[in-house]
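Quick note —
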Amino acid sequence: MTNIMEIGVFLLATLGMASAALSLDRHWRDLAGPRRSIGPRWTRPLRLVAIAFWTSACVLAVQEDGVAIGTLLWVTDLTSGAFMVAVMFTAFGMRRPRRHVQKASEAPHAG
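Predicted structure written out below.
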């Protein structure tokens, strides 16, 4: 497989993982803010885009290297893409300070 094709398969797999992650409300709120939730209007299209990216990555890998090696490279790139998306969401989550959660022992006592 040429280097350009390998990069293409990796990018398609990573974009698919990012689309799938953004279709989940928790990850959407991590990027858009805690008060914004993703509606059903965007959930389904993002998941369909993710499937389209994964399918095109698989077709590209299989077309270039055959069924056996192409499938292996596709699965490897899916895993690497998922790891990259997880690192990115972790990095975005760390840039915002967390709100202080009041412990029960710190709460004012009634009565």
